[in-house]
Amino acid sequence: MALVVAWVALAFTLPRAVPRTLTVDITCRSGNSVVGVWIEATAGGSGWASAGVQGTAKAARYTFSHGFGGDYQVRAGCGGTADNWAVRTASDTRGDLYRRLDCDDTRYLPPDPAVCTDVPAG
Q: How many structural domains are present in the chain?
């Protein structure tokens, strides 16, 4: 009986699948290109974002299909290559489906990542 109760309790505490697509527009303040984006999700399911359709704006668009709800942090590379980022950046942790980030890669002080700030849409 205790085993059944433990399984039921575990089932209620596991993250629930909530399919959603995250869209992030990122600008590197220095003018460097965004060379890669990692989504670090607090509920699990972290991974590499895909380059989205580029518009006429300076921002690079990335999308990520996420199987769980919850907050996430965006980690982006400004400059360098997809395999070797010149500057590592990181945002705050939030749960918005759309984010526009201004990454201040001009103030990079290793080993800490440079800061990406959410810019209000509009």
A: 1
